[in-house]
TrEMBL record:
InterPro entries: Met8-like, NAD(P)-bd_dom_sf, Sirohaem_synthase_N. PANTHER family: SIROHEME BIOSYNTHESIS PROTEIN MET8 (PTHR35330:SF1). It holds the Pfam family NAD_binding_7. Coiled coil: none annotated. It catalyses: precorrin-2 + NAD(+) = sirohydrochlorin + NADH + 2 H(+). This is precorrin-2 dehydrogenase. One of its GO terms (biological process) is siroheme biosynthetic process. GO terms for molecular function: ferrochelatase activity; precorrin-2 dehydrogenase activity. Pathway: Porphyrin-containing compound metabolism; siroheme biosynthesis; sirohydrochlorin from precorrin-2: step 1/1. The lineage of its organism: unclassified sequences, metagenomes, ecological metagenomes. It comes from marine sediment metagenome. Its EC number is 1.3.1.76.
């Protein structure tokens, strides 16, 4: 697999993470660290993501992803592998 590093300013931008496992956690933490407004969409969240949501650092929606969730998102991360 060939990777393409991308540098973008996400501060204050709406970023959506689809998934609730460890990979989603790492991506959400990185987005929060860089000032994004992060939304997590998944029927279930790992304990660490639950804590992140409870702290108010991210918004969580405990449900299946819908295509309309992407409207207005600056960045979307699909992290559904665990």
């Amino acid at each position: 697999m060939s990777y393409c590093p991308i540098m973008v300013d996400i501060k204050g931008k709406r970023c959506v993470v689809i998934g609730g496992g460890e990979v989603a956690l790492r991506r959400a933490e990185m987005l929060v660290e860089h000032g994004a407004q992060v939304e997590i969409i998944s029927p279930e969240l790992c304990p660490e993501l639950n804590r992140l949501a409870a702290s108010g650092a991210v918004l969580s929606m405990l449900r299946e992803y819908k295509p309309s969730d992407l409207h207005g998102a600056f960045v979307v991360v699909a992290a559904t592998d665990n």
